[in-house]
Design brief:
The complex is a heterodimer of chains A (430) and B (123). Chain A is 32% helix and 22% strand. Among the domains of chain A are: 2-113, no CATH class; 193-202 and 243-275 and 314-429, Rossmann fold (3-Layer(aba) Sandwich). Chain A has helices at residues 94-99, 155-162, 169-174, 193-201, 204-220, 227-240, 291-294, 299-308, 316-334, 367-382, 392-399, 401-404, 413-429; strands spanning 2-4, 8-9, 16-17, 24-30, 48-54, 59-63, 79-80, 88-91, 108-116, 132-139, 148-151, 180-184, 249-253, 256-260, 265-269, 276-280, 286-287, 309-313, 337-341, 388-390. Chain A is globular, with a radius of gyration of 23 Å. Chain A has 13 helices and 20 strands. In chain A, a hairpin with a 2-residue loop joins strand 13 and strand 14 (256-260). In chain A, the strands form 4 sheets. In chain A, strands 1, 2, 4, 5, 7, 9, 10, 11, 12, 15, 19 and 20 form a 12-stranded mixed sheet that branches. Chain B has one helix at 117-120; strands at 2-6, 17-22, 29-30, 35-42, 54-61, 65-70, 77-78, 83-88, 101-102, 105-110. In chain B, the strands form 2 sheets. In chain B, strands 3-6-8-1-9 form a 5-stranded mixed sheet, with no helix packed on it. A 5-stranded antiparallel sheet of chain B has the order 7-2-4-5-10, with no helix packed on it. Chain B is globular, with a radius of gyration of 15 Å. The chains are: A alpha+beta (430), B mainly beta (123). The interface between A and B is medium-sized, with 34 and 32 residues.
Chain lengths: 430, 123
């Protein structure tokens, strides 16, 4: 049994809509069909479930006023789902409808599911609201979603995959084949290769030792841990106790529930491979936490990070070897293929006329030389490992770095769209 | 001849920059290619974001000069065109009157490093 809320309209009545453009969404709840409360609950752990709707052909949207009652009735699943419900009509050209093989417009469905960090973060508005440790979307047009692309990158990757509304809608509109996109939150732990591999290989006993250590750290200080400490510790434990590379995915389609195995493809960011990591002095596991996230922790957690971990430098060779181990191990276990976003390696912001003032090796000092070295490392690795490089460097240089990636990593919508296309081309060939 | 070193406008929309490290010493000469200071540019300004658009730059001297007066310390925030320091082309000329021209410098994008002010600050 599927229940739904009233409709949230993203486009107004009378709007001209593109084919594939998400125009509305509603919240869903799914219950076992005949024995509610007795059979296993579908989407265990994914308590945010929504469906977004997009026309198949271009046309003018005419919204049925009864589709939305407003207020909490547009959030709570108070209506039974019926595929025949008319929530709007689309004034489309008969030629477009005929070309699409349609007698009348029916919406394409984009399913959205979020695994919350905690249910008590009370955010009800928007696509995939709240603080999700993992969010995903699949195109529910056919019997089963197509290949899954799991984004385990930082903001240069997550922006491309999640898009402006954070609801995967640009990716949905751009993808000409059924697919599923998943994104794992990169805060507070940056998904670098050693961390992802350790996550994949971690045993329950190792996780228990980590959890016990964090719990001890919270109780060791002179002061009572602050709320920021507890929230930070909870986020750490959530990430350290999971391995998204092992995840399987339940999907709701027009013909029922199905389950897909681990992701066919994983998108990583070279920008996540910092030259320095934290390594736990006794338990030996690795963490990478950006300074802005570290500052979000309370004093107790910051003290623990300073005392329980030591910084470990990584050379480019170390990073290459970490990638190789990750690709080999995960590829052998699940068959997953990897895509890696390289780095923007030039900038109009500097005016270096001579490299003589800078200490060698230049890649240890100068950001753009470091990025070029890292990009070359990826190409070296590609000679012995089968993975795909998404060439951010070339795309950004072509469109213009100053306008489209002003700080070297955060991209404009135009650059994101270009890279989205590159990623989809690779995904289609896998 | 007096020279001023002003905060460069590294990017058109930058609200300012933070002093991350100072290498030059008051009273000492800076050679051609000498490191002057490191700065960080946060395009989001003071508005905290969970992935701030920060980049780091080093100012390097393109001429020999003496640092006469530093107007900033590590951690200071300075708007574009704000005065960072005064230099002179002779060691002991009086610090009087306006600068004859700006100090000639190179601006280079650099990697964050642990000697920066932001490495030790809790701000």
């Amino acid at each position: 049994m599927v229940r739904r809320s009233g409709m949230h309209w993203l486009r107004e009545d009378g709007a001209l809509c593109r084919p594939g453009e998400v125009v509305a969404y509603c919240d869903l709840s799914v219950e076992p069909a005949r024995f509610p409360g007795l059979a296993a609950q579908p989407f265990a752990g994914e308590r945010t479930l929504q469906v977004a709707l997009a026309p198949r052909v271009a046309g003018r949207l005419r919204i049925d006023p009864s589709s939305s009652a407003g207020g909490l009735l547009d959030t709570l699943g108070v209506y039974g789902w019926s595929a025949g419900d008319v929530i709007a009509t689309l004034e489309a050209s008969p030629a477009d409808l005929a070309e699409a093989g349609l007698e009348a417009e029916t919406f394409r469905l984009l399913m959205l599911a979020g695994r919350r960090m905690t249910w008590i973060v009370d955010v009800a508005a928007g696509l995939l609201p709240g603080w999700n440790s993992r969010a995903r979307a699949w195109w529910a047009d056919g019997d089963e979603p197509g290949p899954t692309l799991l984004c385990l990158g930082v903001c240069d990757a997550s922006g491309i995959i999640r898009g402006d509304l954070s609801g995967f809608v640009e990716m949905f509109e751009a993808t000409p084949f059924p697919a599923q996109m998943a994104h794992v939150n990169e805060h507070p732990l940056v998904p670098c290769a050693p961390y992802l591999l350790e996550q994949f290989l971690r045993t329950p006993a190792q996780y228990e030792a980590i959890a016990a250590d964090i719990t001890r750290a919270l109780g060791q200080g002179a002061a009572v841990p602050a709320a920021d400490d507890l929230v930070f510790a909870a986020a750490l434990l959530t990430h350290l106790g999971q391995s998204p590379l092992r995840d399987s995915y339940e999907a709701l389609t027009p013909t029922g529930l199905c389950r897909r195995g681990p992701a066919e493809a994983v998108l990583l960011s070279l920008a996540a491979e910092s030259r320095s990591l934290l390594r736990h002095k006794t338990l030996g596991y690795s963490l990478l936490i950006y300074s802005h996230d570290r500052l979000a922790a309370g004093a107790a957690m910051r003290r623990w990070l300073e005392s329980a971990f030591e910084p470990v430098r990584r050379s480019l060779r170390d990073i290459r070897d970490d990638y190789a181990r990750l690709f080999d191990t995960i590829g052998a276990a699940t068959g997953t293929r990897f895509l890696v976003l390289n780095e923007m390696s030039s900038s109009g912001r500097e005016d270096i006329s001579s490299y003589a003032p800078f200490d060698a090796p230049l890649g240890d000092v100068l950001a753009n030389v470091a990025a070029k070295d890292a990009n070359l490392m990826l190409h070296d690795l590609a000679e012995t490992r089968d993975f795909h490089i998404v060439d951010v460097d070339a795309a950004a240089a072509e469109l213009g770095g100053g306008a489209h990636v002003p700080d070297g990593i955060h991209q404009s919508a135009m650059l994101q769209a270009r890279l989205r296309g590159d990623i989809l081309d690779i995904l289609a060939r896998l | 001849m007096l020279l001023d070193l002003k905060m460069p406008l590294v990017m058109p929309d930058m609200p300012g920059a933070r002093i991350e490290a100072i290498y030059a010493t008051v009273g000492q000469a800076v050679a051609i290619g000498g490191k002057l200071c490191d700065i960080s540019v946060d395009l989001a300004g003071a508005f905290a974001q969970n992935c701030p658009p920060i980049s780091y730059y080093r100012l390097v001297s393109r001429e020999r000069a003496w640092l006469r007066r530093a107007m900033v310390v590590g951690g200071d925030l300075l708007a574009p065109a704000g005065i960072l320091a005064w230099f002179s082309t002779e060691a002991d000329e009086p610090l009087e009157g306006p600068a004859a021209r700006p100090m000639r410098v190179t601006t280079a994008g650099i990697l964050w490093h642990p000697a920066m002010w932001s490495a030790t600050s809790s701000a």
